[in-house]
Design brief:
Elements lengths: L8 E5 L4 H14 L2 E6 L17 H14 L6 H26 L3 E6 L5 H15 L4 E4 L14 H21 L7 E7 H5 L5 H20 L4 E7 L9 H9 L7 H12 L7 E4 L16 E6 L13 E2 L2 E2 L3 H15 L4 E10 L13 E11 L4 E11 L5 E12 L19 E2 H6 L12 E7 L3 E7 L5 H4 L9 H19 L2 E12 L8 E12 L2 E9 L5 E13 L3 H4 L5 H5 L2
Parallel strand pairs: 1-2, 1-4, 2-3, 4-5, 5-6, 6-7
Antiparallel strand pairs: 8-12, 9-10, 11-14, 11-18, 12-13, 13-14, 15-16, 16-17, 17-19, 18-21, 19-20, 20-21
Helix pairs in contact: 1-3, 1-9, 2-3, 4-5, 5-7, 10-13
Length: 581
């Protein structure tokens, strides 16, 4: 692992002002290292004599007006404001340089526009040659032009996009990444979650996130990390914006905490390429139409676009897991109604599974029909169904169910029957190895069973950590189909243990979501048998934490049991061996 020493030099875009300057000062305090700060603000010393002893912004405006008047110029408000901003920016640069020195570091400022490649190539290399070359780059520059997408102009987009994306490309054109030990990209939770009015900003930041992963693949010895920051208390977050965040329950990052989190990322041993620090930028609730509407959303599925399907082969073909049908329906509904969150999914039915063979349709249609629109109560209920047309032009139905979305989810209840006894401990890999569970790595998460009886089963699981590429067309949203599929594997284990047969999901009467299980988190699954016969298993399945606080509860989950399914899952182990696991 690389280390940062007093001899280390970091080139920092946007580093002389705002939150990036706070981070530079914190790094100076920790490492006493060197910095070359890049910014568009002009910087000259000493300051103009007519402004030196003036600190109040209104008073500076009066000084500017008086100064322009002496030269016979009749100043305009825009001209005055531009000069005032330049004076304040120059002072902020000077203050940052002084604070870096006071903290034990060294810093120079280079006035250059990183979006102008020719200017950057002319100005930056000579300074780097004099300073001995850069060990790290911190790309913190950014700007906003917030508008709803229908009101955005090309100039808005270019202003936001070029600073983030073209700015990074230009920096790496002048400082090859192969020479670096550190490349730190300041991105935003707007790129990770999205945010109202920031389509350009979200796009630019997500491109930086993707670039971080690509650059890391080609330069594994460089510590490459994209930090998706939530809003800081300062920088571009004005008091008005801060109040808006407070109304939406979005936490603001205090500078002292944010800088410590940056230092932690620089020193992290897990080498994560993309991290998120901050809460989602919650969307305001969408105004609802007075008259219920029906939506029809078309979708094309492919095996190549969904790498996880290689881990769900039934017989000879990939099959879309049933819970991914739930994810499909719930995810689309959340996108249709920003500000509302999936809360329950009722009367879910698998009518005809989707197999990636010759029966795969060219077009699948999700119909969403509004049943209840209660804006005052913060509640929406819709009926959903997925259909397609086969090669003979016959209509096929695949999944259906009723989705309820709420503006505010209820508190997560406790599961009262949590059985911690370890009377039947079996390592999770055993079930995947002996084909009790046929799932591949992206759908594996059972760590071990704790106990099993004819009435109950308890598992310890871990939610898998998956890249966006692995998730394909089914990204993790409020409903996590990868974690939920692991949760339902308890029913297959129980069926194999008591009947030595394979099983397939049919339905679930009610799925209740209370809170998200973060990727990589350990959780428990407690299954209660409601009814069982040699041909079916009906159960309640609970996902919860170590204290019993629920993440999700499924009532009336049903799978069909049949020896005819055994050959699909290659179940050949004799019953006596199964019971002795």
């Amino acid at each position: 692992m690389h280390s940062i020493t007093p001899a280390s030099l970091f080139v920092v875009s946007g580093g002389a002002r705002g939150i990036t300057a706070e981070c530079v000062i914190a790094m100076s305090r920790r490492y006493q290292c060197r910095f070359l700060l890049l910014g568009r603000s002009a910087y000259s010393t000493p300051e103009s004599a007519w402004a030196t002893d003036c600190t109040d912004e209104t008073a500076i405006q009066q000084r500017v007006i008086a100064h322009l008047a002496t030269s016979g110029t009749k100043p305009t408000p825009r001209q005055v404001q531009k000069i005032v901003r330049a004076i304040l920016a120059e002072r902020e640069v000077q203050q940052t340089l002084a604070q870096v020195q006071q903290a034990g570091g060294q810093a120079e400022y280079l006035s250059v526009d990183i979006t102008d490649l020719s200017a950057l190539q002319a100005a930056l290399p000579p300074v780097l040659a004099r300073l001995g070359g850069a060990q790290g780059v911190l790309h913190g520059a950014g700007t906003l032009a917030d508008r709803l997408i229908e009101n955005k102009t090309i100039e808005d987009f270019e202003q936001v996009y070029t600073v983030k994306v073209i700015g990074l490309a230009n920096l790496l054109a002048c400082i090859p990444i192969q020479q670096l030990d550190y490349l730190v990209l300041f991105t935003s939770v707007a790129g990770f979650y999205g945010n109202l009015g920031q389509s350009d900003y979200a796009l630019a930041n997500e491109i930086l996130n993707t670039a971080a992963h690509r650059l890391k693949q080609h330069t594994p010895d460089c510590r490459v990390v994209a930090i998706n920051w939530g809003p800081w208390d300062g920088g571009m977050v004005t008091p008005a914006i801060k109040q808006l965040f407070a109304e939406r329950n979005v936490e603001i990052i205090p500078p002292a905490l944010g800088t410590q989190l940056l230092l932690a990322e620089l020193e992290a041993t897990d080498d994560a390429t993309e991290v998120v620090i901050g809460s989602p930028l919650a969307m305001p609730a969408t105004p609802l139409y007075a008259i219920p509407r029906t939506y029809r959303i078309h979708r094309r599925l492919s095996l190549a676009a969904n790498p996880f399907l290689a881990d769900h082969i039934v017989g000879e073909h990939a099959v879309l897991p049933a819970v991914f049908g739930v994810s499909w329906l719930c995810g689309v509904c959340e996108q249709l109604y920003p500000g509302y969150t999936f809360a329950t999914f009722g009367d879910f039915r698998v009518l005809k599974g989707i197999v990636f063979d010759h029966t795969l349709a060219d077009d699948y249609v999700l119909e969403v029909r509004e049943l209840e629109l209660n804006e005052a109560g913060g509640r929406i209920v819709v009926e959903t169904i997925v259909s397609s047309v086969d090669a003979n032009q016959r209509l096929r139905y695949h999944y259906r169910g009723t989705v309820t979305l709420l503006r505010d989810l209820p508190p997560a209840p406790l599961y009262p029957n949590f059985d911690r006894s370890e009377t039947h401990v079996v390592a999770g890999h055993t079930f995947y190895a002996n084909r009790t569970l046929f799932h591949g790595p992206t759908l594996q998460g059972i760590e071990r069973t704790l106990n099993i009886s004819q009435q109950h089963l308890t598992l310890i699981c871990r939610s898998p950590v998956l890249s966006a590429e692995q998730q394909g067309q089914f990204p993790i949203q409020t409903f996590n189909p990868y974690q939920t599929d692991i949760q339902f594997q308890c029913m297959l284990i129980w069926a194999r243990h008591y009947y030595n047969v394979g099983s397939m999901p049919l339905r679930a009467d009610l799925v209740e979501h209370f809170r998200i299980i973060p990727q990589g988190t350990t959780f428990y699954v407690s299954m209660e048998v409601m009814e069982s016969t040699p041909s079916k298993l009906l159960a309640r399945v609970h996902a919860h934490d170590a204290e019993g606080r629920l993440y999700m509860r499924v009532t009336g989950a049903e799978v069909t049991l049949s020896e005819r399914l055994n050959h699909l899952f290659e179940i050949t182990t004799p019953r006596s061996d199964v019971l002795s696991l």
